[in-house]
């Protein structure tokens, strides 16, 4: 790394050339802290506040009339948000709907896609996936009267941190019915080649789905073109929908004839939903997989957030995200390197990393506390991972430089030793 690249003037010159810099002003920032935790909970935008208040006003003024007369009507809010988000993930409008939560959507989708029959009874997952995915997969196997110890295949990492796609494919044998994988590994930030894995699964007559919680809104996907059978993700990370905001559910058009088993009235054919008929008739497309009435106030901020993402352009967001994480890695190499027993575990190759950089150190929790005391909000994942997510819409190159300079000082002085090893309930 050139000495000039380390300078503040270099970082600020990059910020001046950044076409996305104007969006920074549209987000509320927590005090003066540099927020590097957008991969856990994205920041609130003025646009999100505006659409939340718009629906609050509709409730205040219209009462029940808001279901048909709010803008947009609450009755089709999930479908409308699906149409807004579809270009961000390469989906057709009727393939995507905002509904439920990530875990509920995993259960709903597996109920319709995981149909063990004959020799194909196994569910393929990876051992590094977010725990809720593993819990849901095991639960679905139990619902079919089987044992997860025998029918849940967990692909293991060779190094404990990263997955080898060749190993995933090797485990796609004739006993596997469905594969459920992450697009981005939540600890390491490794981005899997979804197109390659989808083709490998289909070549072996296996259905495949992805949890895109750590990529939606920061990585440009082509879910339809890649032939992904189903997918789901939360909207409160890079989509900035707010804490506990409504999730998304994707079903490829080739699977529209498949009938969900976890059914509820919100997935009923819309123009006859209030006929209250006892026999379930699903809407065609992803909308038919909805279960319950959506929480309007957990969905309405997303309307504003999606407008920002559409305006900025997902490819522009991805380009800047890669530049920010690449710059962070360069500064790490220049200022910390192999000293202090700290290392980067996120893949260096741009095509293999998502939106955050994971650093590994035995005292990761203490280091996170030291960073917070110095005006940086990072993220910790046990047992030893510090996650730094420079979200492209509100983090600058100068922010990244400041964060890494503060981390360097913490490591050089071992200031983290002054902090407790006791973790908070939410870390």
How would you describe this structure in keywords?
Aspartate Aminotransferase, domain 2, Aspartate Aminotransferase, domain 1, alpha/beta, 38% helix
Describe the structure.
The protein has 427 residues and is of the alpha/beta class. It folds into 2 domains: 3-32 and 313-412, Aspartate Aminotransferase, domain 1 (Alpha-Beta Complex), CATH 3.90.1150; 50-311, Aspartate Aminotransferase, domain 2 (3-Layer(aba) Sandwich), CATH 3.40.640. It has helices at 3-6, 8-16, 46-62, 66-69, 77-89, 102-113, 131-143, 148-151, 165-170, 194-203, 223-226, 296-312, 314-335, 364-373, 397-413; strands at residues 34-35, 96-98, 122-126, 152-155, 176-182, 207-211, 230-233, 248-251, 343-344, 357-360, 376-377, 379-381, 385-388. It has a 7-stranded mixed beta sheet, with helices on both faces. The protein has a 4-stranded antiparallel beta sheet with strand order 9-10-13-12, with helices on one face. The longest helix has 22 residues, at 314-335. It is globular and about 70 Å long. The mean pLDDT is 96.
Give me the side-by-side strand order of the main sheet: 2-8-7-6-5-3-4
What's the overall geometry?
globular
Oligomer: single chain
- Biggest sheet, in brief? 7 strands, mixed
- Estimate what percentage of residues fall within beta strands: 5-15%
**How many domains is the backbone divided into?**
2
User: At CATH's second level, what is the architecture of the largest domain?
Assistant: 3-Layer(aba) Sandwich
One letter per element, helices H and strands E, the order comes to: HHEHHHEHEHHEHEHEHEEHHEEHEEEH
What fold name stands as the CATH topology of the largest domain?
Answer: Aspartate Aminotransferase, domain 2
User: What level of helicity do the residues show?
Assistant: 25-40%
Q: Give the low-confidence spans.
A: none
